[in-house]
Specification:
single chain; 15 strands; 237 residues
Length: 237
């Protein structure tokens, strides 16, 4: 599997919005430019629109189709067995997790947001990806808020632990600020992947709050396209 990271800071604008919207021609050109930029041998790049309400798992068929051609797919995970289709997600601070079949039959991408980690969506997506794989599963975790920067309120931490008691040790109090906690986000995802039986490949060290090339700009009020700052994609080879 070929794995790539891309970001607005490092690679320029890559607005990849859905066909039919204003500026669609530019968006399609941006997809083509990303494919060329990373020398991907792919006919197209599919990046679903994040849809936490639906939590769809999108399947790309052998023809590279995933539903009505004019609609950008909406969902939180995407699975492909098509060799010439690159898949991935764009986002801000959430870890994009890529999966590959070690025998090369399938790839998958999961938007592993904190919201999606509270329940069993991650495991459900892993289970569906496994169905399409013939070899072992290998997982790669992309840039995200690393523990020093991933600070949440006590209420958020307690709510998460209420859903997933095993995550208690992933939250550590901020010194002298008992109402704040640091979440060991990437480590939490890694443990759940390992518990599922996935081999861990690359885990990005990039912190989307401090890294200049992978800075999400979440805290920047003048950022007009905050949902399109950082991306990760995979191509079956």
């Amino acid at each position: 599997m070929t794995v790539i990271y891309f970001s607005k800071a490092a690679d320029g604008s890559f607005m990849l919005g859905p066909p039919g919207y204003p500026g669609n021609e530019t968006r399609l050109q941006n997809r083509e430019q990303l494919i060329k930029r990373f020398s991907l041998h792919a006919k197209k790049l599919i990046t679903p629109a994040i849809s936490p309400e639906d939590k769809n798992i999108i399947h790309v068929d052998k023809k590279g189709q995933y539903g009505p051609v004019k609609n950008r797919p909406r969902g939180e995970a995407i699975i492909s067995t098509t060799p010439d289709i690159a898949i991935g997600f764009c986002g801000r601070d959430c870890a994009i997790t890529l999966l590959e079949d070690t025998k090369g039959f399938a790839v998958a991408a999961i938007h592993a947001s904190r919201h999606n980690l509270k329940d069993d969506f991650l495991e459900r997506a892993l289970d569906q990806a496994t169905f399409h794989m013939d070899g072992e599963m290998r997982a790669h975790i992309g840039p995200c808020l690393q523990q020093p920067s991933h600070i949440v309120s006590a209420d958020v931490a307690q709510d998460f632990v209420r859903w997933r008691p095993s995550a208690r040790d992933d939250f550590t109090p901020v010194p002298e600020k008992p109402y704040l906690f640091r979440f060991n986000y990437a480590a939490h995802i890694r443990r759940r992947l390992e518990r599922f039986g996935a081999e861990i490949g690359h885990v990005s060290p990039h912190d989307t709050f401090t890294d200049g090339n992978y800075f999400s700009k979440r805290a920047t009020p003048d950022c007009p396209d905050q949902n399109m700052q950082i991306g990760m994609a995979a191509l079956r080879v």
